[in-house]
Predict the structure.
Amino acid sequence: MIVRVIRGLTWLVATGLGSGLAPVAPATVASLLALGIYYFLPISGTSPVLYAMIVGGFALGVSATGYLVTDADPDPHRAVWDEFVGIWATCLWLPKELPWLAAAFVCFRVLDIAKPWPIRRLERLPGGLGIMADDLAAGLAGAALLNAARLLVFR
């Protein structure tokens, strides 16, 4: 019974609360859901709670997404918890305002899809670590780009 519950919770996390089952663009759906969760939480881009969501979410995600990995499918499309952690990382230090959140969403999705060097190399890591690491790197790169733009252009 307990094993069944743990497996169910692991699956729920790995699939981003089920958003990974979206028939079209599951990673985009998961990113939107994660952004919505962040938006409605009473925290800011500098909150220790956001840091904990990213660090804890990454650790949990390595195990949870790894649960869905098989030899035939090393990066299952339904494993989208990495999008949650990546979009939350992109929101670091940004004002919690809709234009900045929209920019975070677009920036993260572009970086996640394009996977510029060295982000692409991280997906070669084994199992859930590879699934999670490239999106965390894309999120941190997005946070750096958006915060640089905010500080240089929108002062």
About this structure: The chain has a mean pLDDT of 96. The chain has seven helices and no strands. Residues 127-152 form the longest helix (26 residues). Residues 2-152 form one domain.
